[in-house]
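Sample A.
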Amino acid sequence: MPTATRTARPRLATLMTAGVSATVLVTVLLLLVLVDHFAFDYAEREAGQRLQQLSWQMRDALNRVVQKATGDVALLSTLPQIRDASSPAEIRQVLENLQKTFPDYAWIGLATPDGKVHAATQGLLEGVDVSARDWYKGGQNQLYAGDFHPAVLLGKKLPQSAEPWRFVDAAGPVLRSDGSYRGVLCVHMSWGWARRLAQTILAPADQRYSADIFVVRGDGTVVLGPKGMEEKKINNTSLALSQAGGTGALKETWDDQRRYLTGYSLTGTKGDPTTLPWSILVRQPEDMALAGARALERQILLLGLVLGLLLALAAAVAARRLTRPLNALSKTIEQRLAAPSAAAALPDIAIIDSYHEVQVLSHALAELLRNEQDHLGALRGLNEKLESTVAERTREIARKALQLERALAQEQSTQLLLQERAAELRAILDNAHDAFIALDPGGVVLDWNRQAERLMGWSRAEVIGQPLGAMVLPPLLRRAYERDMRQLADAGAAADGAGNAPVLNRRIELTLHNRAGAELSVEVSLAYVPRSSGHLFIAFLHDISERKSLFASMQEMALRDTLTGLPNRRALMQTLEEALQRANRLRQSCAVFFLDLDRFKQVNDRYGHEEGDELLRQFAERVRQTVRKTDTVGRLAGDEFVVIVEMLHSDAAAQETADKLRPALGRPFVLKTATVTLGASIGVAIHHPDDPADIEMLLGRADRAMYLNKQQGMQQRARR
């Protein structure tokens, strides 16, 4: 046979190995592109949302503290001890009691209309002119919140501290009971509360994410931030956006030339002088925010390289096994082709029984060699078919391997993300300031955080699987509780979790029992959570016992006369209005007695104010002991007292009460240094059921009757 010149070609085993390796390389590169595109974008959005939520938490906390301070100023300005007391010591005692309750109030003081401090905690700055201070100017006509500023007058008078004294002010006007202007009441809050607040919010995030919180004043000055940044001015995009009222997160370069992710928001309400417009910025280094995505990219690259090497090795072994029979056939053919044309004997084509294709090929080659010229085309077609089948199966194996690799990577990524989210949620719940309780539809406890353990007294291990109503509710209320839980579940399911039930997604106040049996006043926020296997309820409980106790105490102080313990003018007005309504409803008359102690000023001037106060206390007690227990006795002002007598069957009954009062009040009063005998002028005004319910007119009639009685008494004494 003539020998034709042939170009050297790569072997089939080499081609298969190279094809598998190239496929794995392309797959790894595609995975890296997908990670860069999706994982990094997701990580950036996630970090931005986290920083934005931290800025919201700081914003809401600052707003609550400033609003509480202005609210305390408003409440103090209504107390009689502040409005009408003439002694600085009496006012100072009330202010110092509030300071003991809230130690962050570094200084509380009342300034008179001429700008001088009348009374203050520990007597600091009393008599000092503060009319030029911003809080005095801003608080003369309305509630006012003063921005962050250094201590000017109090810096050297307050105790030494590690940091210089800085204040935030809350001020407001004070009016006397008669409506006249008393002055301006101011609270200086130490800036230390803001530092503690930032540490409380940022502590978990700072340990894990290296985040920083900035509180920036309107002029760009940092009033709270990392060490070395406070009281310096900054100017960046996030600050401008927050000052414009926006909220969100972005990537930006700070003054240290580092790239950060920054969440931003703005405190206060525009146009409200009782709030402060501070920009809240929470930043995190960009490399720290995207560290998880970088680690995932390295893991995928390493896994791809290892998998590529393994698949390349496997492809080489498989290719050698598959092509071994073909190599034997090709060697025989090459020998036949290389043999000279005049060769007497050519190598025979052996019949190979390795696998079907090779067996068929060997038979075909044998027949082909016998009929070489006639079957050359058939041989070529069979060879092409064989190569196509091998290539198709190789591609199918590679495709299946790629699909399996992607599925495994996706499952691992999902499992890791779920574990991270579960750990984050557990940490948030365990460190929350409010108690967290998760319940199934039957009211059985599914979860219980640390704050719930401290508030209710049971540990988490003790309550899981137990019905909540049996622990915190008395037996008489448990059946109603179970019925309400079923109604809430039906209402939540009908709204598909939208929370249309009256108590879902709203804050309500309840009274519960802790483990010791003590009652707890709590504020509850209840939500309905639908799940694939049913639904559950989650509740956040906030202890408001101290707040309610303090409010009730201050409300009681606002309605009582501090000298006699009787209802003051405000309480009398409320009681008189209710008495007139009952008189009209029950068709029974009521009477108002206006009492004035005769010659009280002479006793007060002669024996002193302490004896005068003792005389007023004995007078009030004698009036209270003389009238019925159902009647109301109150002190209007000075030596003027009012008695409200209800359920009168006739006008004569009112006169009988007046006749009992006159001799009782005419008996001597035994004081510490003297025994005095005084009289009392009594004016009576009767309200009949059909009379108009006009309180001022009724008091005016009683006042005029009292003055007429006083003039008659003076005339009788003059005749004597």
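Sample B, a different protein:
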Amino acid sequence: MIYLSDNPEPKEIIEVAQRAVNDDSMYRSNVVDNYNYYFGDQWPEGDKQALDRARRPHLTINRTKQIVDLVINTQASGRTTVRVLPVGSEDVGITDTLQDLLFHLNEHQAIRWKKMQVYADGLIGGRGYMMVGVSYENNMYGDIEVYPLDPPSVIFDPTAIQPCLKDAGFVVRQSYMSPEQMRTVYGVNIKDVYPSPKDTLISSFMYYPDRLMDSYNKYHVVECWYKVWEYVPVVVNTETGDVTEAKNEQQAMEMARAFAEAGKPILTPGKYRMAKTRVKTICGGTVLGEGYSPFGGDMYPIAPYFASHIANVHYGLVQGIRDPQDELNKRRSEGLHHATATAHSAWLIEDGSVNEREFKRDASQPGAFLKYKRSTGRPPQQITAGQIAPDYLAAIQMADQDIRMASGVNADLLGIAGDSESSGKAIALRQAQSTKAIGMYGDNFRFFERDLALKEIRAIQKIYTQPRMLRVLGEGGVEGGAQFKTVAINIRDQATGKIINDLSIGKYDVAIGNQPDTETQRQTDFYEMVDMLMKLSKLPFPFILALIKESPLHNKDKIIETFSKLMAQMSSQRPAQGQMGPQSAPGRLPTTRASQRTA
């Protein structure tokens, strides 16, 4: 881990960032080419100019974009569920509130679509990043804002090994700001220090410098997040050993006293040496702002997604299919050149039998009448052009297959018609096998989603500290009928004197689930549920719930909750035992006529 000093000067930040960029040269030398490949710019400029001079074609058969888009859509078609879990028993009461706030945050800011941008960045360039920030645009106390970052703009400690960058000594984020933005945000008139954007000290690791600086008068801003070690006030859970940071010693005493009054004397106040995250923002050699992270603790607000994280080397899907993509482009271009060249093959003529100038002009025209002197001998004969060798056509097909093999995406997943004799089950199995081949990208993305959710929860706990009444979108979202509800946080109960939903207390974890969520999958789930209930309607209700819980239905929790409420309502309306008929036996679902006929 590379540590900066407790109060680094701009020069130190610049030097450390420059060394990190140099150590990261493998990624940065390939990332631009990978994006160019995705967008279809796959020929080196020198090769294109040479082919243009030779009047030969340079085709781009962009299989790369087709495959990457398919993998992105495969991930986007799934339903991701994020469940907040309490680490200790004392946090159970606030878990539901955090769950509502996290769901509202993700729905309100369209996090799902932003995540797909990060996923696309990872597949193309190998890395993607999401930033958790604070916005004061609509609320004076601050609101949480989540947005993706341009991957080349992020620089991090090259010695970091963990994919969440928890062991990184620093993380640098680059951006561009106008003088007016810096004056509004930081209160610094940068033009008094640097009349021109190019007068700043930093230049070698800038991204897109010329276009933004020259055309839009933007200044290069560096935001450096780094860790320092300090002794801070904490409370220690004597049962679990967990250490929770407090704002000050008074808050630590109040937290311990509150738990003692509740009959749980498990918290002990004290001091503990912990890592703290600080941030310093500079433009050239000028410090724009500095201080502790608004989220507290040692958390970096940037959540990274590494599509492949092996031996601290990051690469995406595009990197592995560039060579077969090059081969396909070159072979198809050669094939087109051969076809166009042989379409007008040479002629065999006797000397003096034709007017060569007129013959050359008219020989390639359709329907032309060609004249020759009969007295000189044979008429002109066109030389039969050679056909493309079958081995060359096979090589073109092999290059196309190599792209799919290298990516792990087979023809069945692409929807390309293959063996017409294959059954639907066989096709589905091959599609499932192809999905497993690219499963590493999805597994690493779920790790990113967990890391992002933990950062969002930490931000909620640190930003939403003032008494608020929030109108949030309940789970179910817009598709569920816009279920809004009001949540009170950090409000003191006048009767008991206790704070309602004090989000600053407690530690939480998250569980990430992902299942297919296409229209076909939803219909399949519905018919499976109906078929299951028809067959199990005569079993006791607890057994039915146990079977549903073990089923692969993605919304089984909602089904169990609905059935439980239905049974509770039926129990309250149940007639006397003597009047009970066979269709309303206790502990069983009501048997309909349809189910009786099926049975």
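Observation for Sample B: Confidence is low (pLDDT under 50) at residues 476-481, 576-587, 591-599.
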